[in-house]
Amino acid sequence: MNNRFLKQISVVLILFLLSFLIACASNSAQPTSVINLPTDTPFPTSINFPTPTPSLPDEHLSAPNGMFVGRTFHFRSNQQYSESLEIIDTAGTPIASFSHMQPPVPDPHAYLMMAGWSPDSQYLYYYYAWGLDGFITLWDGFNLQSIDSTEGYITPLVNGLMAFSFSPSGTYLAFSRDADQPRQLTIRNLDNLAERSIVIQLPENETTQVGWLYWAPTEEGLIYHKSTLMDYSIYYLPIESMESVHLLDCAMEINWCEFDQWLDNETIRVNKVDSILEIDVKSGLVVNTSSP
């Protein structure tokens, strides 16, 4: 009986030992659990993306009343040439504008340019400036127009290739046009649109011009130039009599001269290659000569 008891004890121990070994083997086969503790996440770095820079105007012209500003913009690329004009108020709010685009054109080419404001700030004047290549250019450009500063409508003033000048008070507009044959110089009263003109006889070819117009301070008359090929002359036109007074003959390079300024309402200064002249416009006489 003792032997049987011992055998039973042995069997129990063997079974217990086998169970223990099986359990240990099972535990060793399970993967070890890995706990990844969260790491500190850095705050995202601030990135300042570039913002487009607004285009700067090529011209900036304030109205006399200080309430409006005229601006022009030009853009040129290999694909297109664009121009625009706008009128803004003092807060920068657009009031009136226009723009146009065209394929690129070779130089010299006409370009949009402002010519000034009317004294009452109602109209902004503009045109398309242009110059000859290789010759003196008395013309100012093409198509003088005005744009209303409150309603934006556009009014043509002088069409085609022309020269022009507004009198100091803005009452008169003097102009000449390439389309006029023979050439003419016209004075227009902008208040009542009345016009007076003189005829200027010149050879009919593409190098004959009438321009470079400069009003006297009190608007009694103006200086104008006429040219043929490389020669040009300076005249004074009193608007009361409309009878021209010849002042001086000049030529490119050889006998160069240019109007400098009005010294008073009857005297102008002209710069020459070797001297400075003061000329009485009513008599056409040189009243003083000095060195440059």
Layout of secondary structure:
Blueprint: H1 2-29, E1 59-62, E2 68-76, E3 81-89, E4 94-102, E5 111-117, E6 123-129, E7 141-148, E8 154-166, E9 172-177, E10 183-189, E11 195-200, E12 209-215, E13 221-228, E14 231-238, E15 245-251, E16 257-262, E17 267-272, E18 276-280, E19 286-290
Antiparallel strand pairs: 1-2, 2-3, 3-4, 5-6, 6-7, 7-8, 8-9, 9-10, 10-11, 12-13, 13-14, 14-15, 16-17, 17-18, 18-19
In brief, what are we looking at here?
With 292 residues, this protein is mainly beta. Helix content is 10%, strand content 47%.
Look at the structure and give the CATH class: Mainly Beta
CATH-assigned homologous superfamily: Dipeptidylpeptidase IV, N-terminal domain
Enumerate the strands of the largest sheet in spatial order, edge to edge or round the barrel.
Answer: 5-6-7-8-9-10-11
What's the number of structural domains? Answer: 1
The structure class reads: mainly beta
The fold-level CATH name is: Methanol Dehydrogenase, Chain A
Q: How many DSSP E strands?
A: 19
Strand content: over 45%
Helix content: under 10%
Radius of gyration: 43 Å
- Low-pLDDT stretches are 20-53
Terminal CA distance: 151 Å
Structure annotation, total helices: 1
- Average of per-residue pLDDT values: 83
Topology as a string of helices (H) and strands (E): HEEEEEEEEEEEEEEEEEEE
Main beta sheet? 7 strands, antiparallel
**Level-2 CATH architecture:** 8 Propeller
Shape: globular
